[in-house]
Design a protein that fits this description.
2 domains; 19 helices; single chain; Rossmann fold; alpha/beta; 7-stranded parallel beta sheet
């Protein structure tokens, strides 16, 4: 008989007062400190919305859809987690109300509940607890973020589940950390603690007493306000942590560590025998130093369809900054709506940029603007980086203007195009060797080519030089592909196919020889970029932008 797996100590992160306070960054920062103390850390997100995953949600509403190695479409907070800790997460680390109810209903239909009336308690809460256990087993500590704000009706089953976990396992196996707002009222000239008091009161009304408070404010929390919050919320004064606004999110681990947050968690969860006595934050200090003491700066235009929502291209923006950090370069981002290019032309918007990145997207709105951008970058010798839809736009440009294929397009935008150089992928082999099939009538959710897949790089290409290896794995999220029937024609026109899938059937990367830097990929390399390591393509792109700015006379220097 095998012994049960040891229970993983948990830190539950909740939020109050208003949304978008930064629970994900705060949780990831604490995880980074605990990891820096030698602990094996993982993270997960519990989202209250009823969608099974965010894959079909508008970027304008929800922001970026983050993709994991196993092909799960998840909340963008998982991107924060992976950028802050050295753990690759998966679908089990992103749970929604939709997933929970879907699983419970399947069990009910199979008869697993033996005729019982299925209810929120115990069936929904038990399923939530099962999912938490499945995602956190085998680690020294796990951080579990509950989305939304305390008081939302949607999050009540999740809060009840974590209350039960604390009751069942004891205070040394579960810590409650609550993030609240301490607003500054300019007219009164003071910080106000009442919203925090009311948020904690709301949390306590459902049976949860927070152990730690993170108080988000524009300025450091004075001792007087700290004592006041502690007395009104029954939280020890040392556990009332000031989460002040910072100009660089990579400073947050050091800021929280300086207030002893990791020590509080280590003590409460009795992790002292596993944790190193001192956190080694040298890598984070190096990241901050490189960002604050740049030797150069560049301006990168990001031409997309969802630029009005700052989180729609979250990973792209972060990866560009990472590429700059690795060479002590400040990266200024110029966000441009692709429809504006269609109206005003490329020259007006892109006249003073050092590089152009065209990210992913769906649908025909703004696509012609992306094609114009690819053409402008190609003709003017401006470094161009196309990602997913950005690669497809570049292929259409080459087809129309170099290969002479008039009317070339993607069938996503024009089903009657005479030259469908980009078409719907109907069959492909997954990383595990299984054959996946789709058609135009397939559901939108979860039916794309998703997750980490390997590709083989062509010797002698810029892509091969940047990666420094023959085979690499990148994460995908797309439904349309390069049409193989046009490979020869486009190669004859000057296009170089620099990477293909391992079975040689799918085009993964393209580039243009003779151009300062023109590379586009079907995958999403931004999902594998981190502030401490960067990503070869983004590092190469930023270096090319620096060379563009310096007139091709950039001197080599040590990386950060």
């Amino acid at each position: 008989m095998t012994s049960p797996s040891p229970v993983t100590p948990l830190v539950f992160v909740t939020g109050g007062v208003v949304s978008s306070l930064g629970k994900g960054i705060a949780a990831a920062s604490l995880a980074a400190i605990l990891e820096a103390r030698g602990l094996r850390v993982t993270m997960m997100k519990l989202d209250p919305y009823i969608n099974v995953d965010p894959g079909t949600m508008s970027p304008f509403q929800h922001g970026e859809v983050y993709v994991t190695d196993d092909g799960a479409e998840t909340d963008l907070d998982l991107g924060h987690y992976e950028r802050f800790i050295n753990v690759r997460l998966g679908g089990k680390n992103s749970i929604t109300t939709g997933k929970i109810y879907e699983s419970v209903i399947r069990k009910e239909r199979r008869g697993d509940y033996l005729g019982a009336t299925v209810q929120v308690i115990p069936h929904i809460t038990d399923e939530i607890k099962r999912c938490i256990d499945a995602a956190t087993q085998g680690f020294d500590v796990a951080l579990v973020e509950i989305g939304g704000t305390v008081g939302d009706i949607e999050s009540l089953p999740f809060l009840e589940a974590i209350r039960q976990i604390r009751t069942d396992r004891g205070a040394d196996k579960a810590v409650f950390m609550h993030l609240t707002l301490v607003p500054y009222i300019a007219a009164a000239g003071e910080l106000k603690t009442k919203p925090t008091q009311h948020s904690v009161k709301e949390l306590r009304s459902i049976g949860i007493q927070p152990d730690v408070l993170l108080c988000r404010s524009e300025q450091p929390l004075p001792d007087g306000e700290r004592r006041k919050i502690a007395s009104f919320t029954n939280v020890p004064e040392k556990a009332v942590i000031s989460a002040v606004d910072l100009d660089n999110i990579h400073k947050i681990p050091m800021w929280l560590h300086a207030q002893g947050l990791d020590e509080i968690v280590v003590d409460r969860l009795r992790l002292g025998d596993k944790a190193a006595p001192v956190a080694d934050l040298s890598e984070w200090l190096a990241v901050v130093d490189a960002a604050e003491h740049p030797i150069d700066e560049v301006t990168i235009a990001v031409v997309g369809k969802y630029v009005d929502h700052k989180d729609a291209y979250k990973s792209v923006g972060e990866a560009l900054k990472h590429g700059g950090i690795r060479q002590r370069t400040r990266v200024n981002l110029k966000w441009i709506e692709s429809q504006d290019i269609e109206r005003d032309g490329a020259e007006k918007a892109l006249g003073r940029v050092d590089g152009i990145l065209v990210p992913g997207g769906f649908g025909d709105r703004g696509f012609e603007g992306k094609v114009l951008v690819a053409q402008h970058a190609r003709e003017q010798g401006i470094p161009y980086f196309g990602i997913c839809y950005g690669m497809q736009a570049a292929v259409v440009d080459v087809a129309r203007h170099l290969a002479g294929l008039e009317g070339a397009n993607s069938t996503e935008n024009d089903r009657q195009t005479p030259h469908p150089v980009i078409g719907l992928i109907t069959e492909w082999r997954t990383q595990t060797g299984e054959i996946e099939k789709r058609d135009e009538k397939s559901d939108l959710g979860g039916t794309m080519r998703l997750g980490l897949q390997e590709q083989r790089l062509k010797p002698g290409t810029k892509a091969r030089e940047l990666y420094g290896k023959d085979v690499v794995g990148e994460r995908h999220r797309h439904r349309y592909e390069f049409n193989n029937r046009y490979r020869t024609q486009l190669e004859d026109a000057g296009l170089v196919i620099s990477a293909k899938s391992m079975d040689d059937l799918l085009v993964e990367m393209i580039e243009l020889p003779g151009h300062p830097w023109f590379i586009a990929c079907q995958a999403h390399p931004e999902f594998l970029s981190t502030p401490r390591g960067g990503h070869p393509l983004f590092i190469g792109f930023i270096r090319a932008a620096r060379e563009q700015k310096a007139g091709g006379k950039l001197l080599k220097e040590a990386s950060a």
